[in-house]
Amino acid sequence: MSSSILRPLANSAKMALGRRALATPTNVHPSMLQSVLPATIPAALHLKTGESYHGTSFGSTNSKYGETVFSTSITSYTDSMTDPSYRGQLLVFTSPMIGNYGVPSNAPLPETPGIPFLESEGIQCAGVVVSDVALKYSHYQAIESIHEWCARHDVPGISGVDTRAITTLLRDQGTTLGRLAVGDEAEYVPKAEEYWDPSQDNLIAEVSTKQPYELNPNGKGPKIAILDFGSKANILRSLVKRDARVTVLPWDFDFNAVRDQYDGLFLSNGPGDPTSIMETVHRVTKTINEWNKPIFGICMGHQILGLAAGMETYRMTFGNRGHNQPVLALASSGSIKAGRVYVTSQNHQYAIKLTEDFPEGWAPFFINCNDSSVEGIISTPESGKHIWGVQFHPESAGGPLDTHPMFTDYVQACADKSASGMATSELKVDTHAAAVGASA
């Protein structure tokens, strides 16, 4: 529906409400009762490499620095913008229109209390760059426009720029530091030393939980600990929906001090460089060497596993961000079948190096069909371990669900290990009782 049609509807509804001549209409979407457009304010995206793109502001009127990246996803912009892995980044959407279905309430669903509806409590990216922002929205779950949402979270946006040109530039030269400038600041081009590099900060510490907390404590499934490097909410949902009892721990928590209380360890996604938290890497190495229960890592968690196992990571040119990344399975495990290509959702700048000789006890699990980057690692049967790491997001909110059954595989492995441990414990008790009886 065009804005020329919406504007009379909005105006007539407001006039009726002002005169109190009519009752509040029940069949008009709330978006039609709101102002159509924000004030027109100039904005610009300045890149450290010298390029500038001028357009119109939406959202916050405060200027922000960040790392300019692009995403090829064509849906779920609300989930991408709330993904903690985008912390400190100026997010360029290649999809030409963003905002057409508005923004839903972020309140937890009744079946998953304590977990926000979107991927975190608020917007995580530093700014948003779009070709055409939809300031009028239409969706039965929407409660506000993307403009209102960004303004409320102090996140600036720019519309009316050529995102195809920006994406081509970033693809060729790689992710680039930038500034999204608004209003009078739009004309000022920052000096090279003024640009802020978010990778120099410990972004994981910013987005991780500050205190441990529990989800689904009365569940019947296995007890799983999550090291939170910036976990997406849908990871938590995916575990809780399988009735796992989940404890979320801060990124620098010493899991080895409490590991015997749990049936499995999960390493979440997160922003930044995995080598920025080497103390955690060393603790995970200790866990791998001394603990024989299942471990699953996603995205940042996958990279932490690789470093802990003795592999190397590197910074990719422009990373992989989007809901359409094909990966080839090199090994079979649970629901994953070797030789099959799976379409996955991804958001990462760093990756594990592919080498001819993996460390002993490890093997490549997935490889990217586009750039041959390592998309997964797995412990070998000879190692006696049950460890998986994937660079993509099996929980994919939004995106394809090809690999979502991996959560079922993992929770079942934890449950099996728990049952095996209980059986062993009972056997020891019975053996001890028999010995006592014999001596009597």
UniProtKB/TrEMBL annotation:
<comment type="similarity">
    <text>Belongs to the CarA family.</text>
</comment>
<keyword id="KW-0055">Arginine biosynthesis</keyword>
<comment type="subunit">
    <text>Heterodimer composed of 2 chains; the small (or glutamine) chain promotes the hydrolysis of glutamine to ammonia, which is used by the large (or ammonia) chain to synthesize carbamoyl phosphate.</text>
</comment>
<dbReference type="GO" id="GO:0005737">
    <property type="term" value="C:cytoplasm"/>
</dbReference>
<dbReference type="Pfam" id="PF00988">
    <property type="entry name" value="CPSase_sm_chain"/>
</dbReference>
<dbReference type="GO" id="GO:0006541">
    <property type="term" value="P:glutamine metabolic process"/>
</dbReference>
<dbReference type="Pfam" id="PF00117">
    <property type="entry name" value="GATase"/>
</dbReference>
<dbReference type="InterPro" id="IPR036480">
    <property type="entry name" value="CarbP_synth_ssu_N_sf"/>
</dbReference>
<dbReference type="InterPro" id="IPR050472">
    <property type="entry name" value="Anth_synth/Amidotransfase"/>
</dbReference>
<keyword id="KW-0028">Amino-acid biosynthesis</keyword>
<keyword id="KW-0547">Nucleotide-binding</keyword>
<comment type="pathway">
    <text>Amino-acid biosynthesis; L-arginine biosynthesis; carbamoyl phosphate from bicarbonate: step 1/1.</text>
</comment>
<dbReference type="GO" id="GO:0004088">
    <property type="term" value="F:carbamoyl-phosphate synthase (glutamine-hydrolyzing) activity"/>
</dbReference>
<dbReference type="GO" id="GO:0006526">
    <property type="term" value="P:L-arginine biosynthetic process"/>
</dbReference>
<keyword id="KW-0315">Glutamine amidotransferase</keyword>
<dbReference type="InterPro" id="IPR029062">
    <property type="entry name" value="Class_I_gatase-like"/>
</dbReference>
<protein>
    <recommendedName>
        <fullName>Carbamoyl phosphate synthase arginine-specific small chain</fullName>
        <ecNumber>6.3.5.5</ecNumber>
    </recommendedName>
</protein>
<dbReference type="GO" id="GO:0005524">
    <property type="term" value="F:ATP binding"/>
</dbReference>
<dbReference type="GO" id="GO:0006207">
    <property type="term" value="P:'de novo' pyrimidine nucleobase biosynthetic process"/>
</dbReference>
<dbReference type="InterPro" id="IPR006274">
    <property type="entry name" value="CarbamoylP_synth_ssu"/>
</dbReference>
<keyword id="KW-0436">Ligase</keyword>
<feature type="domain" description="Carbamoyl-phosphate synthase small subunit N-terminal">
    <location>
        <begin position="41"/>
        <end position="181"/>
    </location>
</feature>
<dbReference type="InterPro" id="IPR017926">
    <property type="entry name" value="GATASE"/>
</dbReference>
<keyword id="KW-0067">ATP-binding</keyword>
<dbReference type="InterPro" id="IPR035686">
    <property type="entry name" value="CPSase_GATase1"/>
</dbReference>
<dbReference type="InterPro" id="IPR002474">
    <property type="entry name" value="CarbamoylP_synth_ssu_N"/>
</dbReference>
